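To: structure subgroup
Subject: Chain for Friday's discussion

All,

I'm putting the inputs and outputs inline so they're searchable in the archive.
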Amino acid sequence: MDFREDVHDEVRPSLGSLQSYFAKCYGTSRWRTLRAALEAPAQKVAWLNLRAEPPKASLPSTVKLIVHKSGSAFLMCSNGSDGSAELPAPSPCQLCSDFYPGGSTQKVTSHYLLDGASILPALALDPLPGEQVLDMCAAPGGKSLILAGQLFRQDAAHATPNSASQAAAPPRRTSLLVSNDKTAARRGRLKRVLQEYLGPSMVSDHGPVIVSSVDATESRVSPTWPMHFDKILVDAPCSSERHIIHGAPGASWSASRLKRDAQVQQLLLRSAVRRLKPAGGKLVYSTCSIAPIENDGVIAKLLAHERYGIGLTVQDPLAELRHPSFRPLVLGAQPPRCEPLARVGPSFAEAP
C-alpha cells in the first residue's frame, strides 16, 4: 500500500514501520480500513457559543443543528462532506442578554470550529453545574469551551439579581473549571481562546475559569489546585497517527515513541486519580491514537496497580454519546479512543 504523494519527504522513512506495526496489531484487512479512515478528511463541527447573541443570518440547508442533552449545541454538515466549506466562519458577537440582563459592551466569538471526534470526550465527561472540573491537557481549548458551556449553562437562570425565584432557590455550589497546560506557548493560546469565547471576566486566577501551568506528570501536583475534582478530563498527548499519515512536516513515528508516550500517559492518569473525588468522581481518558498500548494498555495498567486501581470501575465510553446525529463521529473516520472511569470505592489516600 502506497502513501499519499503529498507526504513530506522527512516523514516517509517512518511510514513503513508504522504500516508494519499496525498491520500486525489489527491484521491486514482491518488495518487497510483504519488507514483509509485516517487518510480521509476529518469531519468538522462547530461548537455554538451560547454566551453569544445568536447570529441573524440563516444557515445553509446542508448544515444542521444538534443539541446534546447537556444543552451543548453544535453545527455539522448533513450532506456527507467534511464541513470545511459549508460551516460559517466564526465572528464577534455581543454577549447574550440572558447572561447579562443589564447589558454589556463585551463581545465574544460566535462559535469554535474543531474536528468532530474532539467533542466526544468532553460530552462523555458530562460535567454538571456546581461541579469542580479539571481539563488536565487543555490546549488549544476546544474541549475546555465545551466543558465550560456545560458547567455554566445555568448562569442565565441566575443572571437577574434579587429575583423571587433566585431568593427561594437553595444556594448553589460554585462551578469551577481548571484548564491546564504546562507549555507556555500553548497555555498562552489556551487563555486567549477562553477569554475570546467566554469573556475576559470569566477567566482569572480565582475562577470561575482558571488557566494553570502544572506539569501533571510530576508526583506532586500543584497545591493551587483544589484537593479533589468531581470530574477530570485527561485528553493525553499521543502519537497521533493521523498527523503522521497526512505527512505533517516534523512528524515522525516509531514503536519506541509509543512506549514513551504510554509512560507519560500513565503518569498523567495517576496524577488525575490522586485528584479525583473519593466517591462518585469521574475521569475520562482519551487520545487521538489507535495504538492499543496508548489506550487499553494504559487503562489496564492503571486498573491493575495495587494503589491507583483501587475503587475504580470502567463505564460505557459511549453512554453519553447516544445521539443519532453523533453516529458519523462515533463510527466514522476519526473514532475517539475514550475511556470513562468512575471512582466508587476508597480514595487514593485510603489505599494501602
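Points worth raising on Friday:
DSSP finds ten helices and 13 strands in the chain.
The longest strand covers residues 337-343.

D.
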